[in-house]
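User: New here, any thoughts?
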Amino acid sequence: MIDIRTSNERGGGDYGWLNTRHTFSFDQYHDPRWMGFCSLRVINEDHVAPGAGFPMHPHRDMEIITYILEGALAHKDSMGNGSIIRPGDGQRMSAGTGVRHSEANPSTKDPVHLLQIWILPDQKGHQPGYEQKSFPEEEKRGRFRLIASPDGADGSVTIHQDARLYVSLLSPGQQVEHEIAAGRFGWLQIAKGAVELNGKTLKQGDGRLQTLRNSLSRPAKIPKCCCSIWRNQRRTCYKSAAEASNRHGTSGRHNGNCCSVLARVGLSQCCGSREACLPVQQPLNGPVQRIAYAFRPANHRQ
């Protein structure tokens, strides 16, 4: 399945000191169709005015990645870290058992433009942690640069989830490809400019999701779900909140919210009906089928 989340459909607003857009439900913006995508929970695009920012506030059990597009952002946290994040830097904060931090634009004249990405961890209760690395432009120009991964590969920051975050900068006429293997999911977010993705034009703020249906696969005979979880490369489907509650021995009111039932037993990686109603794919014997995505700047000339 391939679907597009267009920029103008996002939530958020302009509050003077902050102009923010939410790809997924966040804060006062709620859209049950867009509660996240598998372990990807938040993509916020923020413009913060000079001298403004977010005062000290708490987080827990979330992998938070901040990527600066323009300007600078000052970070302080309860772990004793204090730094300035600049364009091209990737900052990872693992909230784990609990952390407090503040973010502010240290400039008196220039706004800061950033993306903040939240990823659900592989389990609750990790030790809070912080990491910040610079990824030079030449390492991203015309190629995909890995900036976050579960094992810190290629000098990326380390996150507590089987997910990988890549960044690419494309000049007119350049093209890059990325393969998504069977059983994996992909989300493309356009941070600046516009690109063509397999002939489709995407502009700044657009997002495109993809789940691969492997041609060397057969659909499992599992009914459509109201929610599901994906663990250890297997998906478990629940037809109703009541079924999820009965399976896991929870009690109390669930108000028809399947994911809230799973959250009470620590299964926070819950996909809603938008993803869960896809058939589960069971690989057959044979080579892994892959799909390649080709990206190039929109309106380029051959």
Notes: The chain has three helices and 26 strands. Helices lie at 241-248, 258-264, 273-276.
